[in-house]
Design goal:
single chain, alpha/beta, Isopropylmalate Dehydrogenase, seven-stranded mixed sheet, five-stranded mixed sheet, globular
Length: about 350
């Protein structure tokens, strides 16, 4: 039985979305056991009337709620009875719990995971790896995307190793094509960190490094993994998502500006529906925190039930594939580069 803990009071649609997403995942996976963490009275009301296998659901009472503007360090020190912090502590202390999913504060989750959970042996810094769809119908992972603003070439090599293993083991991408985010495709482009990282990635055994990537090519389908520092990666992801959403808004506005366009759009209704689903981040789960001693998945704050279900699916596959052990094995080959 694989036990996954859900922080039920972190996101915009809590606790409804976490509970419904958890029950949906439970129904699809007979060897899954769900632990719902949050105010017990509210969670029981949310569960009332729903059909599920009660023998595979546990509730852990955590009455405190983390506010939007609370400092991550304060949360870790003072909010031990919040659904997030109690969940992290249980994840650390209970050997039977494999993973945790949260749609709460990113800063608090990263800080709590680093302070309370620790890292996989050999990992210098854990890193976020969200997934975006590509224009050829595939997906691409971006690592890091917010956990580490300043990095070294050794960090970038580890991000590449961890995210490549993640894409292969969780999404079935064979021999993932790994690129380094840079200002140009030539090997000599970028700052000292990027140039040094280029050399390290080239000599990393078993890594399918295909060179530098410019940001405009992220969704081209030419890459499976893009390695970046947390600042650049976060800007890349949010700019891409924002541009796609604004283009869809512009397209919708133009369609409704003239009757002729409306008639044309009616004939293309299915295509527009498919396009909307293709660009909907809810269908791609959350951003996994690669490198922590146990599996942690961060869902978007506005995640609905389907997104939470996808996050649980990610955590489930990471545990089934024993990804943490594989990361430890590969990272150990390059321990002399740790700085």
């Amino acid at each position: 039985m694989i036990k996954i803990l859900i922080d039920c009071f972190g996101g915009d649609h809590s606790p409804q979305a976490p509970v419904e997403g958890a029950l949906a995942a439970l129904a699809k996976n007979p060897d899954l056991y769900i632990i719902l963490c949050g105010d017990e009275e509210i969670l029981r009301k949310e569960l009332a009337g729903k059909t599920y296998d009660a023998s595979r659901v546990e509730i852990v009472h955590a009455p405190e709620v983390i506010g939007c503007n609370e400092k991550p360090t304060d949360v870790v020190r003072l909010k031990r009875n919040s659904s997030m912090m109690k969940g992290i502590i249980l994840l650390r202390d209970r050997d039977d719990i494999a993973a945790m999913v949260s749609t709460g504060s990113t800063g608090a989750l990263v800080t709590g995971a680093l302070v309370r959970l620790g890292r996989i042996p050999g990992v210098i810094r854990p890193a976020f790896c969200p997934i975006l769809p590509t224009m050829d119908g595939g997906i691409v992972g971006i690592c890091d995307s917010g956990a580490n603003v300043e990095v070294t070439s050794a960090h970038l090599r580890q991000f590449a190793i961890m995210s490549s293993l993640y894409m292969e083991n969780v999404y079935g991408v064979k021999n993932p094509r790994v690129a380094l985010l840079n200002v140009g495709k030539e090997a000599e482009k970028g700052d000292d960190v990027r140039r040094e990282a280029y050399g390290l990635l080239q000599e990393t055994e078993g890594l399918n490094f295909v060179g530098n990537m410019e940001s405009r090519d992220l969704l081209s389908g030419s890459y499976d993994v893009v390695v970046a520092d947390g600042f650049s990666g976060n800007v890349l992801v949010k700019t891409t998502e924002g541009t796609a959403l604004e283009l869809l808004k512009k397209l919708k506005g133009e369609i409704f500006s003239r009757t002729l366009y409306k008639l044309g759009a009616l004939l293309m209704k299915k295509m527009f529906k498919d396009l909307k689903e293709f660009m909907n981040y809810q269908n791609y789960g959350g951003s996994v925190l690669l490198g922590t001693s146990k599996v942690v998945v961060k869902g978007h704050g506005s995640s609905k039930a389907v997104a939470v279900e996808k996050c649980i699916e990610q955590a489930y596959k990471m545990e089934v594939s024993q990804l943490s052990g594989k990361i430890e094995t590969e990272i150990a080959k390059y321990e002399h580069y740790i700085d």
